[in-house]
Structures are given as structure tokens and as C-alpha cells.
């Protein structure tokens, strides 16, 4: 297919993303810009020069990691041969819409920017595989358990802030419900489930909640037992986020105490996929999870 013909063809999935908010729009738009650039045989350096930027800026745009200036998108489309027609108008409209703040930005007073970025990616993802060693994954926490986790991390925060953080976590869980829910595959260390955070009754309710959630077809929970000894994820917890746009790389999310890392280089992604696959093998099979959780409830 010639570049000229490809530029006139409506891009796939352009209209499918708005339901997930501005981050999803940026991901979709970035993927389309990458496709158009590659079809023209242009490097990220050449594209960056056209918008008075760097190759790294083009990479961030194509991965949906930054907001878009309409002028930059217009200049790139001209460079890529998309000078008029419905495709150009659609992509420029996406650039304008993608700068609309997501619902989670209303919590910017209690959350750092680096975590707001993660929530946007979480809302846009179609599959998240996560490994946790200390806590139940946030998307699977009950309100009381979440409150205990928040208080542990912010012991001096006022009660109003605690409740806002808890409410945000509960709202995020909406991605697990509805007509097109997020698929979640969580591998959790047994230590996180044995630790009675919030007290025995809070933990019992949390474990019962996990049992209910694992009855959903799109949620998988595996437990890495103490008997597994050492395992592949010696470096700590991490998440792998996958998106509906096939041309977009998976993103590895690593959270630290006061910052986070986002990895999308193929070598990094492949390494973490291998570690996650190994963890899934080391963990107890998913069909045993209910029995393990019931045994933990009985011991509390």
C-alpha cells in the first residue's frame, strides 16, 4: 500500500477509544501518528525537527504519554501527507479532546502527577497483569482495607484526605465492571494475604471479597505460597499494562516511595513478561485460590 493511499484510509479504532477518557485518546492518536510516520519512512528525529522538538518528544507522543498541541499534530500530519480530508479532521479533533482532563484529575490535590499518569493508563488498558508482595492489589481492595492501607502510608494526613484517597481507589475499580471490563490477572504473595491489615475482621471481609471477585470471568487471582521459596520477582512488585491498540507497546509500571518508572522498551517489556510468566508458574493454580483464601479466613 502506498503512503498516499494509506493516508486517505480511515485509521482503525479511532472512534473506539473515547469511552475510556483522554489517556485512551492520546494512546489512539499516538498510535496513528506512528503508523503514518513509518509509512512515510521517516525517523523520529526527522519528525521531531518538523515540530521544533526532539526524537524523544515524538516517542512520548506516539506512546500517548504526553498531551498534544494541535499545532504539533497539524504539522506532523502535513509532513506525513495528510493535508486535508476526514482523516486529518478526525485526528485534529482527537488532539483537542485528548487534552480534556480525566475524572481522576479532580484528585490532583492529594495525588502526585506521576500517579495520575498511571491512573490514566489504567483506565485506558484492556489487560493488566500485576504482582504484589505487600498489599492486596488496589483494584481488588475493599473500602475498609483500602482505608487501612492509606492510613499506613499517610499516618499524619487529615481524615478528609484519607477519605478522598479511599474514594479515588473505589472509583478506579469501576474499570472491573460494566459491558467492557478491564481484564485483571493478579499474582499475590501469600504474605500480603496473611498480614491482617486493619485488623482480623477487616481482613476477613477482604478475603471474602477476593473470593467473590475471582468468580468473575475476567479476573484471575493466583497466590505465591511461602513454600515456593525464592522466585523470579526478587525486585519487588510491578504491573504490565496492555492496550487495545495493537501497535502500542505494553507498559511496565514500577512504583517507588516517591516516584514511579514507566518502561516500554522491547527488551524491558520482554524481561518483565518472562518474570510474570514465571511467577504464574510458581504460584498455585487459579482453581486453588478459593480454597486457599477460605483456609486463611478460618485461621484469622
UniProtKB/TrEMBL annotation:
Source domain of life: Bacteria
GO molecular function annotations of the record: DNA binding
HTH cro/C1-type domain location: 33-87
SMART domains registered for this protein in UniProt: HTH_XRE
Organism from which the protein derives: Thermomonospora curvata (strain ATCC 19995 / DSM 43183 / JCM 3096 / KCTC 9072 / NBRC 15933 / NCIMB 10081 / Henssen B9)
Xref: InterPro entries: Cro/C1-type_HTH, DUF5753, Lambda_DNA-bd_dom_sf
One Pfam family in the UniProt entry: HTH_31
Protein name in UniProt: Helix-turn-helix domain protein
Amino acid at each position: 500500500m502506498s503512503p498516499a493511499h494509506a493516508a486517505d484510509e480511515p485509521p482503525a479504532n479511532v472512534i473506539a477509544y473515547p469511552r475510556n477518557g483522554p489517556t485512551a485518546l492520546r494512546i489512539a492518536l499516538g498510535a496513528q501518528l506512528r503508523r503514518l510516520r513509518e509509512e512515510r519512512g521517516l525517523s523520529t528525529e526527522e519528525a521531531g525537527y518538523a515540530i521544533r522538538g526532539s526524537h524523544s518528544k515524538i516517542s512520548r507522543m506516539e506512546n500517548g504519554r504526553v498531551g498534544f498541541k494541535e499545532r504539533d499534530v497539524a504539522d506532523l500530519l502535513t509532513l506525513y501527507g495528510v493535508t486535508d480530508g476526514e482523516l486529518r479532521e478526525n485526528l485534529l479533533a482527537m488532539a483537542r479532546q485528548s487534552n480534556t482532563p480525566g475524572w481522576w484529575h479532580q484528585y490532583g490535590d492529594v495525588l502526585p502527577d506521576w500517579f495520575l499518569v498511571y491512573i490514566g493508563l489504567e483506565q485506558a488498558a484492556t489487560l493488566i497483569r500485576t504482582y504484589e508482595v505487600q498489599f492486596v492489589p488496589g483494584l481488588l481492595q475493599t473500602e475498609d482495607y483500602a482505608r487501612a492501607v492509606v492510613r499506613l502510608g499517610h499516618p499524619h494526613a487529615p481524615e478528609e484526605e484519607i477519605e478522598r484517597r479511599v474514594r479515588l481507589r473505589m472509583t478506579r475499580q469501576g474499570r472491573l465492571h460494566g459491558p467492557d471490563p478491564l481484564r485483571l490477572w493478579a499474582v499475590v504473595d501469600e504474605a500480603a494475604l496473611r498480614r491482617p491489615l486493619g485488623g482480623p475482621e477487616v481482613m476477613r471481609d477482604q478475603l471474602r471479597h477476593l473470593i467473590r471477585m475471582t468468580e468473575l470471568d475476567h479476573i484471575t487471582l493466583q497466590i505465591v505460597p511461602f513454600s515456593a521459596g525464592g522466585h523470579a520477582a526478587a525486585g519487588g512488585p510491578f504491573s504490565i499494562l496492555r492496550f487495545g491498540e495493537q501497535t502500542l507497546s505494553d507498559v511496565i509500571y514500577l512504583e517507588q516511595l516517591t516516584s514511579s518508572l514507566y518502561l516500554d522498551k522491547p527488551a524491558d517489556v520482554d524481561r518483565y513478561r518472562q518474570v510474570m510468566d514465571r511467577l504464574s508458574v510458581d504460584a498455585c493454580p487459579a482453581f486453588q485460590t478459593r480454597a486457599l483464601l477460605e483456609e486463611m479466613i478460618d485461621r484469622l
